[in-house]
Structure formats: structure tokens, C-alpha cells
Design brief:
195 residues, mainly alpha, single chain
Length: 195
């Protein structure tokens, strides 16, 4: 089992050349059994009460990687917001229900703060505006040996747009640990990269 410190310290960045497999193998993590029932109730596609964008743990970890996000609570909020927002089926009442549950029902490290809820909304809006593919339906295992830049491009995830939304997040919450370590350097060949 991974220690909480090592998982909290992990952040993948926005490297384009690394394969999904290499990035996934470098990601510390816990077994699916460590996910509490209340999280599985809303976020696991096998649950009858799953919200739009529900994705298995492997797919969820892959979304962290392609978005260049770590695993702090604020990172989780953004990843979940993007995944749910990209589903194309998320309604306002479902969004509000999720925020309420993440804020009041979830416990320990799974509980969202007020800022986490705002970052979740930022992720939902980003996914809607960017026209990202339905991430919960992506065959992630078939992409393991492809470079991350190629995967992002095929999913409609523009690193330049990510950099813009991350800059906004850093400006809104400059003291947060997650915002301080968001990727600031774009991969080579991305418009807007400062060489």
C-alpha cells in the first residue's frame, strides 16, 4: 500500500513524449478496495446511482495523467469536474447533488472544501467549453503505449487551454498546494509555449 505522503507528492505534469503506460506505472496509488462506499455510490459506473461521467479507477487515474494533475483534493475536484463535464449528460441538479455529497457526506481525504467545490465547477466548465471527448468511455487500456501528447490531441485536450485554466486557478487560489504545483510549462510545439 502506498503511503499518503508519496501519493500526495505525485504530480505528472504535461509531458507529451511519455507513454501513458510509463506515466501510470510511475503513479503511486492504492487498491480499489481503499475507495469508500460513499465514493463508489456516485462515482463508480457499476453503481445504480452513478452520476454522469462515472469511471472506473484505472480510467480515473488515466484522466489525472492526461490532465497533468496530482492527487490532492483540489486536483481530484478538477479531474472529477472535467470527467463529469465531458460526459455531455451532467445536469445542474446532478452537479449540485455531487457538490453537496462531496462536501457533507464524504469523509476524511475524500471530503471537498469550499475551494474544492469551486475547482470542481472550474473543471466542469472547462470540459464543456473545450469540447473534450467523453472521458468515461475512452478505452484507456488500448492507449497505454501511446505518447501522452498524441492521446491529449485525440481527446480534444488542448495543453494551451489547460495552461490558461491552470493560470486562472493559480490566480484565484495562489496559496493552495495544488495550485502552486500546477504545470506552468507547455510541451514543445504547443502554441503559446515560451522557449
Amino acid at each position: 500500500m502506498t503511503t499518503p505522503g508519496s501519493l500526495a507528492a505525485w504530480t505528472p505534469g504535461l509531458d507529451d513524449a511519455t507513454t501513458l503506460r510509463a506515466a501510470y506505472e510511475a503513479m503511486p496509488g492504492d487498491d480499489a478496495s481503499a475507495i469508500p462506499w460513499y465514493v463508489r455510490l456516485l462515482e463508480n459506473p457499476a453503481s445504480p446511482l452513478a452520476l454522469p461521467g462515472a469511471i472506473d479507477l484505472f480510467g480515473h487515474d488515466c484522466v489525472h495523467i492526461v490532465l497533468g494533475r496530482g492527487t490532492l483534493s483540489q486536483d481530484e475536484a478538477f479531474v472529477l469536474g472535467v470527467t463529469m463535464g465531458a460526459s455531455g449528460r451532467l445536469r445542474m441538479w446532478q452537479r449540485q447533488l455531487y457538490r453537496l455529497c462531496a462536501r457533507r457526506l464524504y469523509r476524511s481525504v475524500f471530503r471537498f472544501s469550499r475551494v474544492d467545490c469551486l475547482v470542481f465547477d472550474l473543471g466542469v466548465e472547462f470540459a464543456g467549453e473545450a469540447g473534450i471527448a467523453r472521458l468515461h468511455q475512452v478505452p484507456w487500456r488500448s492507449l497505454l503505449d501511446r505518447p501522452l501528447g498524441e492521446i491529449r490531441q485525440s481527446l480534444g485536450i488542448d495543453p494551451g487551454r489547460l495552461a490558461t485554466v491552470y493560470a486562472s486557478e493559480r490566480a484565484l487560489w495562489p496559496a493552495s498546494a495544488a495550485a502552486q504545483r500546477l504545470p506552468t510549462r507547455l510541451p514543445r510545439g504547443v502554441p503559446g509555449r515560451q522557449e
